[in-house]
Design goal:
The protein has 225 residues and is an alpha/beta fold. The protein is built from 8 helices and 14 strands. The protein folds into 2 domains: 118 residues, Rossmann fold (3-Layer(aba) Sandwich); 97 residues, Arc Repressor Mutant, subunit A, CATH 1.10.10.10. It is 42% helix and 24% strand.
Length: 225
């Protein structure tokens, strides 16, 4: 496993690098956006641990570069900020998880392992459910052989639902799969409803069937039964 840690606090960066190296992880550090971009051009990483506040810009600007240059790379955002808005922006930009300072190094390691598990769960490149087709390799979604544009979270949702078809999935399970343990506002599922509502609309607008059933008091079931 190779990890890039982008952190401008020198002592914290050294501590993270040392701890992860002791865990038998190949880890590279960068203290600003410029150095991080240079490392992304010359290495392939499985996870990038990314501080939002950097001396030469906002760490969120780096997420698109990561998605463009890294194959199936997980992103764990680290920030001293603890507002709901910052978390939502980071996750909607494409991050997989979010942790706020101060934190224990053991928790960083656990979050990294969780991201890697989620990114390697599937061994099939293509999932098909009736008229729906999910191509994991190209990150494309098709209905009746026509591509439908999805956001990253919508794509992860449809993949999660199809791989768990005919099972009841709790809202907590959806949060855990899509965002890990980093969301501290799991008692408010409005953001889950929004993602599901948007996904449903895109499927129906493309003449697909709405297979997502609400199981009141529990969660959802993706089924044609």
């Amino acid at each position: 496993m190779k990890i890039l840690v982008v952190e401008d606090e020198s002592d914290l960066l050294k501590s993270m690098l040392s701890y992860l190296k002791d865990a038998d992880i190949t880890v590279i550090g960068a203290e600003n956006l410029f150095n991080a971009e240079d490392k992304l051009l010359s290495h392939q990483f499985e996870v990038v641990i990314l501080d939002i506040t950097l001396p030469d810009g906002n760490g969120l600007e780096l997420i698109k570069r990561i998605r463009d240059t890294q194959d199936n790379c997980g992103i764990l955002i680290v920030s001293a900020k603890n507002s709901l808005t910052d978390k939502i922006i980071g996750l909607d930009f494409g991050a997989d998880d979010y942790i706020t300072k101060p934190f224990h190094l053991t928790e960083i390691h656990a979050r990294v392992r969780a991201i890697c598990r989620r990114n390697s769960l599937s061994t099939d490149d293509i999932l098909i459910f009736n008229e729906l087709e999910v191509n994991l390799k190209t990150v494309q979604f098709f209905i009746h052989k026509k591509e439908v544009e999805l956001t990253k979270k919508e794509f992860q949702l449809i993949w999660f639902f199809i791989t768990n078809k005919n099972r009841v999935i709790t809202k907590e399970g959806i949060v855990q799969h899509l965002w890990g343990d980093g969301l501290e506002y799991a008692d408010n599922f409005d953001f889950i409803y929004t993602h599901i509502k948007n996904l449903r609309k895109k499927i129906v607008d493309a003449n697909g069937n709405d297979y997502l059933k609400t199981v009141y008091g529990l969660g959802y079931k993706f089924t044609d039964q």
